[in-house]
Amino acid sequence: MSHIVVIRSYKPGDEIYCREIIKDGVMSSMHTAFFGNVFKEITFQLMILFAAIMFIFFGIPFTVCLLVIPVVIILTYIGTFMAHTTKAMEIGQEINNIPRVYMSNAFSGFWVAEAFEPYLMTRHPQDIYYTVMTEDQFRKSNIDISSQAKKIVGTVAVTKSHRLDKGAWIKRLCVHQQYWRKGIASCLLNVAVQFAIDQGYSCVNCVASEYTEGGRELCLKKGFELKQMYHKLIVGSLVTVLMYELTYQIKPGDDDYMPNSYKNSFLFH
């Protein structure tokens, strides 16, 4: 068993790697968001408006006015890039304070997925099968990792909801792109939901944008249900992003209850 991934609790010093993973995760949806913005109605309206102003008020030939199309597209790309960069920087500040934000009480937590691999990797991670396990399973397995390198490849967090009395939020679910489709995100989500169950939360929610379809589909497969859809304002009401709030209802008042999709969920992948 030369390639394993262990889901474990955050340790001081992890934030350096977590910040990079989450930044890459935020930026990975940039191109999808850019193409989505290009085909929004407001973009076409801006193209027509600028072209009309140049043609009517400045007498610029119509063929030259058509150059406004690539200009608007370039500006859209710059705006999308700046929005994602700003978001990544904001989250980076949060990640710098993981102990205060997520580890200061028993009702919140932060976990990382740590990969153990040979020092000399002859194949790309996407071509390798990884065994994914929890921290407890790893301790019981007695696997010797003394000759292996380790690196953090995923994150997830749970925090108490300020809106719902007994609700929790799953945040920062992210996996390095080279380790997608290895069952890592699924196991991270399992750990987060199990934590919410153990802490007595009545439900656990998460939010995904229209540009993070993979994460949304994973949650739906795990038994989450769509609670509401809403538009997040980016530039007033002119530019918006469709957001999906998903919820996993945990039956309250029954200590023996565990949703079927999470029974025996921590099997090796």
UniProtKB/TrEMBL annotation:
**Which GO terms label this protein's molecular function in UniProt?**
N-acetyltransferase activity
What InterPro entries does the entry give?
Answer: Acyl_CoA_acyltransferase (IPR016181), GNAT_dom (IPR000182), NAT_camello-type (IPR050769)
Q: Establish whether keyword Kinase is in the entry.
A: no
Limits of the N-acetyltransferase domain: 93-248
The reply to whether Transmembrane figures as a keyword in the UniProt entry is yes
Give the domain of life.
Answer: Eukaryota
UniProt name for this protein: Uncharacterized protein LOC107270690
Species name: Cephus cinctus
The upper taxonomy is: Eukaryota, Metazoa, Ecdysozoa, Arthropoda, Hexapoda
Gene behind this protein = LOC107270690
